[in-house]
């Protein structure tokens, strides 16, 4: 069974209340619950908004709220669930703008309309251009996403060589650059969110599961996401220990449904359920005064078959059902505006002494203060809870 975090939490507690049954049927053995990806994706994006989006940063150039004012995206809210689609499209645009700005900085270009001499040659083959693009992507990741010093520090803490290297290290705040650190933090976490969404669209369960491992660190490090962190941890427990190999394989790969016969036409199962809920509401509405509990139960049990029959009927009669998806206005001009602002402010270039009012002494990673010892203790505690069956989660 799949659902959002609250649904899974209630289902797990209800399942645990039946653990004293005398038969497998009474205990509902074999039933397991998994958290779905559409609601989780909204939660992951909310983490970014909580850290990087604030009305108080309107005067800080090259922040999300400043970009929102720059391109007049007034439908973007601080709470993602208040306007899900505008929040996702706005975040994707801002992330792409920073990737483009980073590429321009590496190639020493001043505008997206400029051309790079290395790939502008007429005799340059597709293979040459592809190799250059791969090299450029590696330089962007190494320069703006991967922080070698912080990774070494984290590795040392894991190996137990340093208990708290952050407090022992002296930081020269005169060399700090809040603007560049902000862009690095956005790119590091934003590319993970984008990778997660692309894995869902492609139906790549293994990559999706890999993203959940990384998100587990961010969820645990965020004090307001303890329940989602717990569900992410138990997903690891299910795959690696609690479920059979067959069930674990299904948990990894049965996370989306393909609605369109094209590349990237998959949607999460909980989003598909939202579509079925809309169909159910339409059917109940048309019952009018004849709506009863018995009629509604009958509609619920046959909703999948009813949907298939309706689709086949429309296909055989060549009835084209108009899509409810709105035609999105091209965002190229907005992208160019944000890129120009980043280039003009030299946001992707280290400039010592640049200070933000809202994000003072900004760190280049959300995980800069991650406590690995606390993480190990937390995991081991929940292992014991599973062995002793003291808690449902």
- The end-to-end distance, rounded to whole angstroms, is 16 Å
Computed over alpha carbons, the radius of gyration is 25 Å
Kindly give the count of domains.
1
Largest sheet: 2 strands, parallel
Mean pLDDT: 86
Listing every helix as H and every strand as E from the N terminus to the C terminus, the arrangement reads EHHEHHHHHHHHHHEEHHHHH
Q: Percent range for helical residues?
A: 55-70%
Strand content: under 5%
Throw out a few tags for this protein.
mainly alpha, two-stranded parallel ribbon, two-stranded antiparallel ribbon, 17 helices, globular
Summary of the model, kept short:
With 393 residues, the protein is an all-alpha fold. It is built from 17 helices and four strands.
What would you note in describing this structure?
With 393 residues, the chain is an all-alpha fold. It has one domain (39-267, 336-388). It is built from 17 helices and four strands. The chain has a two-stranded parallel sheet with strand order 1-2. The protein has a two-stranded antiparallel ribbon with strand order 3-4. Helix 9 packs antiparallel against helix 10 (205-221). The model is unreliable at 161-170 (pLDDT under 50).
